[in-house]
Specification:
480 residues; alpha/beta; Rossmann fold; 35% helix; binds nicotinamide-adenine-dinucleotide; NADP; G6P_DH; NAD(P)-bd_dom_sf; glucose-6-phosphate dehydrogenase activity; glucose metabolism
Length: 480
């Protein structure tokens, strides 16, 4: 299957924090891959802006070094470096701004986008500077990253600071999970087929499991992570977005606000989470545990969380949603499992056992969708039933042009340039997610909850298994 690449219009993209990990490790490689795929026109401009004392050439050298592994796969690196520029700018200082404004002036109706790849504490000042230098016109777009606040109050402040200079239609809040191929396929499967949607409710779905398991620890982000924890770092944004897409009503059209309206309704219908429906954990290992990694021997921050919640609406009343995410787990695996109910009556007798369909939507690795169906075990010996997967692996199904398929950052950055906000979070969504998250965190802080230890490389604390067992259910395995 040949993927079609439609070039975007010429654009100027300024990356504030252009020397940082995100810019160098994700944004610029994504842009290079889109360049290599022929999607970025030759007169586009990408301007890195940061505090480091670099010029165009030394910035290009820095980026070229970071792109070396990519270039192995071919591509016109020099051409790409040719659209790169650098400006030394400190958000807190006046220097550099007039020069940037002059560079961007007179570009007519070219798209102008500003990627705020800096700490969220700088968003307000950055927006103000852009406005002051005439760079916040109606046509400009700003891109902001997670974390979008650390609670409802701080998210509101960020929204207010951005709204002072930009309309909601100009603000692109990235959650890179939304850019994943499978996440969009989840919507295609749900709303493009007749097969699933009639069953997509509490009458047929027993429960839904959302797992985002990581094998990595906190890495170099210890200080940030210890102040955040898995609930703020993963559940409030990534898992919440997946929950919304799996649970929302069909929007009338696949359009930004229609989709985001439906997601917002899901978040607002979420029940508060009861204390005994939450399991928090911290990974442990002699000399290499969580507390050592963050340099805080008394830390009570969770590197793992499992919880059960309900959506109080007609479709989902009675169907629990189990969410779990953690670091240093047995395998890297992000998957949504829709667990259907058993058939109401087995005509094959008790010895055939109980069988239920499972629709697994794998986000990473090996993106794909599997439906487990029950069939007769081949051979003689009566009616023995087995569950076998009907597997749709994207890597196989769409193999031919696999390397050209954009990853999440590539797709999302191109969406910014195209002006398509469908896969970005709206301000009210983010606030609603915090409004649900805040009381949960406040609850365990008030109770003085201490996370349960779990072994490096395990599936998490044993209490998470109990959370399921108490309901007569069990987690699907965490498989790579
Ligand atoms: P980083 O510390 O590596 O880089 C920060 C960048 O901001 C540098 O280029 C620095 O020069 C610039 N900067 C700092 N203060 C500045 C100032 N006053 N004026 C102008 N530039 C200034 O950080 P990062 O990892 O690149 O993260 C950037 C943002 O993206 C953060 O908000 C982070 O939470 C978020 N984020 C990062 C990742 C990631 O993979 N690194 C993933 C998701 C979200």
């Amino acid at each position: 299957m040949v993927s079609r690449v439609i070039p975007v219009d010429p654009f100027d993209l300024v990356i504030f924090g252009g020397t940082g990990d995100l810019a160098i490790g994700k944004i610029l490689p994504a842009l290079f891959r889109r360049w290599r795929a022929g999607q970025i026109p030759e007169d586009a401009r990408v301007i890195g802006a940061a505090r480091a004392d670099l010029d165009d050439d030394s910035y290009r050298a820095l980026v070229a070094g970071a792109l070396a592994p990519e270039v192995g796969a071919g591509g016109d690196l020099d051409g790409f470096l040719g659209i790169l520029e650098y400006r030394r700018i400190d958000v807190g200082e006046a220097a550099g701004w007039p020069d940037l404004a002059a560079r961007l002036a007179g570009s007519g109706d070219r798209v102008q986008a500003f990627y705020f790849s800096v700490a969220p504490g700088l968003y307000g000042a950055l927006a103000e500077r852009l406005q002051a230098h005439g760079l916040a016109g109606a046509g400009t777009r700003v891109v902001v990253e997670k974390p979008f606040g650390s609670d409802l109050a701080s998210a509101r402040t960020l929204n207010r600071d951005l709204a002072a200079h930009f309309d909601e239609g100009q603000i692109y809040r990235i959650d890179h999970y939304l850019g994943k191929e499978t996440v969009q396929n989840l919507m295609a499967v749900r709303f493009g087929n007749m097969l699933f949607e009639p069953l997509w409710n509490s009458q047929y779905v027993d429960h839904i499991q959302i797992t985002v398991a990581e094998t990595v620890g906190v890495g170099g982000r210890g200080a940030y992570y210890d102040g955040a924890g898995a609930m703020r770092d993963m559940v409030q944004n990534h898992l919440m977005q997946l929950l919304c897409l799996i649970a929302m009503e069909p929007p009338a059209r696949f359009a930004p606000d229609e989709l985001r309206d439906e997601k917002l309704k899901v978040i607002r219908a979420l029940d508060p989470v009861l204390p005994h429906h939450i399991v928090r954990g911290q990974y442990e290992q002699e000399g290499d545990g969580y507390r050592a990694a963050v340099g805080n021997p008394r830390s009570r921050t969770e590197s793992y969380i499992a919880l059960k919640t309900h959506i109080s609406n007609w479709r989902w009343a009675g169907t629990p949603f189990y969410l779990r995410t953690g670091k240093r787990l047995v395998a890297r695996s992000s998957v949504i499992n829709v667990m259907f109910k058993d058939a109401p009556h087995s005509i094959f007798g008790a010895e055939a056992g109980r069988h239920a369909n499972v629709l697994s939507i794998r986000l990473q690795p090996n993106e794909g969708i599997t439906l487990k169906v029950t069939i007769k075990e081949p051979g003689p010996g009566g009616m023995r039933l087995v569950d076998v997967p009907l597997d749709m692996s994207f890597a196989e199904a769409l193999a031919a042009e696999d390397h050209d398929r954009p990853d999440a950052y590539e797709r999302l950055i191109m969406d910014v340039i195209r002006g398509n906000q469908t896969l970005f979070m709206r301000g009210d969504e983010v606030e609603a997610a915090w409004a649900w998250t805040d009381p949960i965190i406040a609850g365990w802080e008030a109770r003085g909850d201490v996370p349960k230890p779990y072994d490096n490389g395990s599936t998490g604390p044993g209490d998470a298994e109990l959370l399921m067992q108490r309901d007569g259910r069990r987690w699907q395995g965490i498989k790579p």
